Amino acid sequence: MCSNASGKGLLSKLPQLIGKSPGLTQIAIGSITGLSTGYAVTKFGKIPVAVAGTAILIAQIAHSQGCGNMDWKKIKSKAQETTKTIDSKYNTSQFGSTVKQVTQTSPYFTAGFVGGFLIGVGI
User: Keyword Transmembrane helix, does the record have it (predicted)?
Assistant: First the structure.
């Protein structure tokens, strides 16, 4: 099993590794990564999105019929609390900065990823 330190090191080195690769290699890596991501989003993302959408509709119907009182301030504070928990647990700020660095320094990878993603979603 990988340790946390080696994972952070790899994540920080990723933009340099991709940026130093030839253009065709960047396109190939980006396309494969994008294709995999797009396919996974369409196959595994449908269920959670459908559940969330259904829950929102049911909550709104119940609220419009007077079957419950929604405390929007409480919902907002819980959402912000959950976001902070996720950010601290998964270190999303480092991931976001790495993604930004890769997209700025590796245009071939970025184009390959976007193209592969769209193909993956279309499959």
Answer: yes
Secondary structure element (H or E) that encloses residue 84, with its range? helix 72-90
d(Cα 112, Cα 115) in Å, to the nearest integer? 5
Structure tokens at 96: 């976001």
Predicted pLDDT of residue 73? 80
Where the chain has pLDDT below 70, the residues are 1-12, 70, 90-95
Q: How far apart (Å, rounded) are the C-alpha atoms in residues 114 and 5?
A: 30
CB atoms within 10 A of CB 89: 8
**Backbone φ/ψ region at 68: left (φ over 0), alpha (ψ -120 to 50), beta:** left
Is the separation of the CB atoms in 36 and 112 below 8 Å? no
Provide the pLDDT for residue 8: 57
**Considering the entire predicted model, what is its pTM?**
0.55
- Between CA 115 and CA 123 the distance in angstroms is 13
User: Any idea what the Cα angle at residue 52 is, between residues 48 and 54, rounded to 5°?
Assistant: 115
CA distance 46 to 52: 10
Q: 72-90 and 92-105 helices cross at what angle (nearest 10)?
A: 70
